[in-house]
Amino acid sequence: MGRKRVVKIKFKKLYDVKIKLLKNIIKNDEIDDRIMNHISYSDKKILDVHCKTGLMTIKIAKERPYAEVIGLAQHHYLPIAKRRKRQHFVKNIEFMHLSNLTIHEKYFDIITLFFVLNELEVDRIKQLLLKIKSILKENKKLLIVDFTKGKNRITNFVLKVYHLIFGHKNMNKFLSINLCELLKHLGYHNITKEEYNGFKLISSFNPG
User: Rounded to 10 degrees, what is the CA torsion of 130, 52, 23, 12?
Assistant: First the structure.
């Protein structure tokens, strides 16, 4: 087995273990169900930004089989995501490089960000949200799923250890950001937030 292939497999295993561990901390069935409740059967063009190995992207494509689903990932994740697509025999999905983010102006019915923003500095968060606004159709949805504080001491302790293990250096700074106010400042509207044990879902719309 070549060195590059070994590196790719390690990337896949590390990210997939990380996500499975996270879902065990914040209740896998709850978060998946909450996400899918926000993605309507009428959403025909779906974009998942920074989709990494495509775990959630594949799930969306399977549960919304009549939609066109696109996952954007960094170059080291792309071969893994594409291989996962072949393994799951999913035809309504395409994985592309993250540099393709702005090629479709006002094209998508819903755009998703799953545990992405916590890894970015504030300026990069603003830049990404503005780019997304330019490719989201008028009055269509941006769905953000990310970390928040847990509702009990045990969850907060476990999440703290989780962040230390996986090197989330910006977590304290991220948790202090009022994403709803930032979205409003950037021109999004009809902003709603749902908070659960360790994660939050923020839905907002592009006024066009």
Answer: -170
Domain that holds residue 166: 3-205
pLDDT digits (tens, 9 = 90+) for 136-186: 999 999 999 999 988 888 888 888 888 887 766 778 889 999 999 999 999
> Has residue 5 got a pLDDT over 60?
no
- Could you tell me the CATH number of the domain that includes residue 187? 3.40.50.150
Q: Could you tell me which of 97, 90, 106, 54 has the C-alpha nearest to residue 72?
A: 97
Phi first, then psi: what are they for 83, rounded to 5°? -65, -40
Which residues contact residue 125 at a Cβ distance below 8 angstroms, ignoring those fewer than 6 apart?
117, 177, 182
Q: What is the dihedral of CA 5, 113, 19, 150, to 10 degrees?
A: 160
Structural domain tally of the chain? 1
